[in-house]
Design brief:
The complex is a heterotrimer. By secondary structure, chain A is an alpha/beta fold. Chain A is 42% helix and 21% strand. Chain A is globular, with a radius of gyration of 21 Å. The model of chain A has no long low-confidence stretch (mean pLDDT 91). Chain C is of the alpha/beta class. The chains are: A alpha/beta, B mainly alpha, C alpha/beta.
Chain lengths: 290, 266, 278
């Protein structure tokens, strides 16, 4: 599903003395099957932005289009329910949304709310359990017996069970250990590649952005200050540093070498890209001097 | 939820804000007694002047108070109408049908009840708008201290109250987050019949309780690590000091009290 | 070197669980060092940290802190010597405001109010939160709350600071600031620091690293030795240092980098040498 924002502004508690503008005049177009990373400091409006995409928050002004759905300040909740089925949302620490007696029931909860029969939903639940890498034998267990990482997988399965076409992930790897983080990111990559899911990832992990994302949106104080493909967004490390954002390690490293006279085309952002360009120069050295 | 002013704190710098919370708590109580003692135009007039003066001194705009009354409006209207329609006979009868009597007595009485409601709500709103919840808790526990003699665990209660207040915003945020997560999974909060609404609370309440229990466990570990053994054997960082302005406020109130005694219809 | 903590044959089992959370763990902590404890989630490293402070009643083994053997009789004395910061910034903030929270530990120790006021003030200054002294926790960021937790520890002047994944819920900026503050406090207050972490930068700050897996101590070495393990680090519950990732990527392309651990600067130098000096 393609997503477009047109001059979207959002104010919390609009019209009260406590009013706070969280998004200001945000416009962008994300193509279908995209993989967008949204970065920026805590409080820059990232979470507010993604909550607009499945209309948990409606814009104070402006328009959001998600395929055939249009969200304006006047859209009613009844119109939005079908949209919520198409846009799956994984919140920060999603394990805190589990509540059913068994894991199967919890995963089946979402699809049933959108009208699926309990039998079909249960079947789907078992399927999703394997998708997120948990054994089918877990289905009858209580979600509260699991480890934190496993609970998170169950929560994600519960979102995937709604068969969304867009998957929003708000810092999905926070609090996991490195191996858990890696497995989680691989899972999303697989969903993106194999099932064509549009992914919107809110993250602080620049390495993940460089590794997985196709488009990048950079937020600052409620404004979208940069939008483009990864190379455009990260191609200027000095700009990132000036905005107190981390530069991917590979880019930092490449920049240090550039100071000694290395030429990069383009600036490598991941260890693999860096190694690729080093290998080329390595071979050139071989041919030059042999 | 955000429009609900009653029970909120508004940080301003005024005489009313600076009053000792103990003084404010006791005066609020005393004020309610005064409201129930007033029974004619003059005494209500004195109270209205009093209340407006207190609001003026707090630097909080009157609009805030009116907003605070709005959620309670139906309760007030209901009580006033009840009083109006069913008060016992007395004075001139304006209207009579079956068991409904609208009498002069009833009209006057319901007018007074309306004013009483208004005054009490305004003064208690003033108390919470001008006093941090923590100070109310400290004030309450300080006032409860004499209960130690009858073995009421006052310090433990005060600690519990203070922690509960401290976690109100945290749990409110958590509740909003869980509600959003469940709405994203297709739950419609506040829609459908009573049964459906009650049922939709389960996916909110279960996670909220789980989270509160987890937090409680973490918190108790952290408190123990920080040397907390029991509430009795601790010193106090935050203390309340009675100042001249508290005494002066009391004197004003006592004068008001005397005036109401003098002018009320006995 | 003098040991400030000695742990001998420590074992712990949660409730009726079959598998022990800690299984015969022994190690020493030297006075003044920064020790990192790493391992997977669920490896037992947090259990270990809590055991040192007497927060979990272990059944077997001994823990000696600054010459004092941990027992129900000595547990409160031991806690005088240890300050602990936990993972969730919200769940350790007890006071209603920043200064109340910093005072909490002092109140527990029945410090008089006259002594408390300057100590609270100084501690808040020390962590750079003086502009926030009257603030309520709901108006603070996670990183600021962890600073307040550190101030609470500065106020009671312990000799040991335990960070139990204290930076894992912070954003990169908050994490960076927190680590800098801990380094500063360690210098100023002569603290021994034990940090339980997955964060490679936090581990790199340490003098020594202990690796815990499945309740057992499996390795004890310097950061350089541990980081030289390369891709095996992920199995130990640590992230790969960037240079390890780059070496793996180079190897795949037929370039053989040196096998010892290199910092980014060292690797840059090596690459520069190899590519230009021929």
């Amino acid at each position: 599903m393609a997503i477009s924002f047109e001059h979207v502004t959002f104010t919390y508690q609009a019209g009260t003395p406590m009013a706070q503008t969280a998004l200001e005049d945000v416009s962008f177009n994300l193509p279908d099957h995209g993989y967008l990373a949204i970065i920026g400091h805590t409080g820059s409006g990232k979470s507010t932005l993604v909550q607009q995409i499945n209309a948990l928050l409606k814009p104070t002004s402006g328009t959001i289009k998600i395929d055939d759905f249009t969200i304006t300040p006047n859209t009613t909740n009844a119109d939005l329910k079908p949209l919520r089925q198409h846009v799956g949302m994984v919140f920060q620490f999603p394990e805190s949304q589990l509540f059913e007696e068994t894991i199967r029931k919890d995963i089946a909860f979402g699809p049933q709310n959108f009208g699926m029969s309990p039998e079909d939903a249960n079947e789907l639940a078992d399927q999703m359990l394997t998708t997120v890498g948990l054994d089918i034998s877990y289905a009858e267990r209580s979600p509260f017996e699991l480890s934190g990482g496993q609970m998170r997988r169950v929560a994600i399965a519960g979102v995937l069970a709604m068969r969304p076409q867009v998957l929003i992930l708000d810092e999905p790897t926070a609090g996991l250990d490195p191996q858990g983080r890696q497995e989680m990111m691989d899972l999303f990559e697989q969903l993106h590649r194999e099932q064509g899911l549009t992914i919107v990832l809110v993250t602080h992990q620049m390495e993940d952005v460089a590794e997985y994302a196709e488009q990048v949106a950079i937020m600052r104080e409620g404004r979208l200050v940069k939008f483009g493909d990864v190379q455009e967004a990260f191609g200027d490390p000095d700009w990132l540093l000036a905005n107190q954002l981390d530069v991917p390690r590979a880019a930092q490293f490449a920049q240090q070498l550039a100071k000694r006279g290395f030429q990069w085309q383009p600036l490598p952002l991941t260890a693999d890209q860096l190694a690729e360009q080093i290998a080329e120069q390595w071979q050139k050295r071989g041919t030059d001097h042999v | 939820m955000s429009n609900f002013i009653f029970g909120r704190y508004l940080p301003l710098n005024s005489v009313v804000h600076r009053l000792d919370p103990r003084a404010k708590l006791m005066l609020s109580f005393f004020y309610i007694v005064l409201v129930f003692m007033a029974n004619n135009l003059v005494t209500y007039g004195i109270l209205i002047v009093f209340t407006l003066a207190a609001i003026f001194a707090s630097k909080i705009s009157l609009g805030f108070f009116l907003k605070g009354i709005r959620p309670l409006l139906w309760l007030i209207v209901f009580t006033v109408v009840l009083q109006l329609l069913f008060s016992p006979a007395g004075g001139h009868v304006y209207f009579h049908w079956a068991f409904i009597n609208i009498t002069q007595y009833g009209v006057v009485n319901s007018g007074y009840i309306f004013i009483r409601f208004l005054l009490i709500i305004m003064m208690s709103t003033l108390l919470t708008l001008s006093t941090q919840p923590l100070d109310i808790a400290t004030g309450l526990s300080s006032l409860m201290k004499p209960l130690r003699w009858v073995h009421v665990p006052v310090d433990t209660l005060a600690m519990m109250l203070s922690i509960a207040l401290r976690f109100v915003p945290t749990l409110m945020d958590e509740a909003t987050k869980i509600m959003n997560a469940q709405r994203a999974r297709g739950v419609d909060f506040g829609e459908g019949g009573l049964f459906k609404q009650a049922k939709s609370l389960i996916p909110l309440m279960v996670p909220l309780f789980m989270s509160a229990f987890n937090r409680a466990e973490d918190l108790s570990t952290a408190m123990e690590a920080r040397g907390y053994q029991d509430s009795e054997h601790r010193s106090q960082y935050r203390i309340l000091t009675w100042q001249k302005r508290d005494t002066v406020t009391w004197i004003i109130f006592i004068i008001g009290f005397a005036a109401i005694l003098a002018f009320r219809r006995w | 070197m003098e040991n400030i903590i000695e742990v001998k044959h420590l074992s712990y089992r949660y409730g009726k669980e079959q598998r022990p959370a800690l299984n015969d763990v022994s190690f020493d902590v030297h006075r003044g060092e920064w020790l990192a404890i790493v391992g997977h989630n669920g490896s037992g490293k947090s259990t270990l940290a809590k055991s040192l402070d007497g927060l979990l009643p272990f059944t077997e083994g001994t823990v000696t802190v600054d010459g004092l053997e941990l027992s129900p009789a000595t547990v409160w004395q031991v806690r005088e010597k240890i300050g602990m910061i936990f993972q969730n910034p919200d769940n350790q903030f007890v006071g209603a405001t920043v200064e109340d929270d910093v005072a909490f530990g002092l109140e527990n120790r029945q410090v008089t109010r006259e002594d408390m006021i300057p100590r609270v003030k100084a501690a808040i200054e020390e962590v750079g939160m003086h502009d926030f002294a009257q603030r309520e926790p709901s108006s603070l960021s996670g990183g600021q709350k962890q600073r307040v937790a550190l101030a609470g520890i500065v106020a009671i002047t312990p000799s040991i600071l335990i960070l139990d994944e204290a930076t894992s819920m912070l954003d990169p900026l908050g994490r960076h600031d927190m680590l800098e503050l801990v380094s500063k406090l360690r210098r100023d207050q002569k603290l021994t620091v034990i940090s339980i972490t997955h964060d490679i930068d936090e581990a790199a700050n340490a003098d020594r690293i202990l690796v815990i897996d499945d309740g057992q101590l499996v390795q004890e070495a310097s950061p350089a030795e541990i980081f030289a393990l390369g891709e095996k680090l992920v199995d130990l519950g640590l992230d790969l240092p960037f240079t390890a990732k780059l070496k793996a990527a180079l190897k795949k392309r037929g370039i053989e980098p040196p096998t010892n651990y290199q910092t980014m600067a060292e690797m840059e130098e090596w690459l520069w040498q190899s590519l230009s000096n021929t």
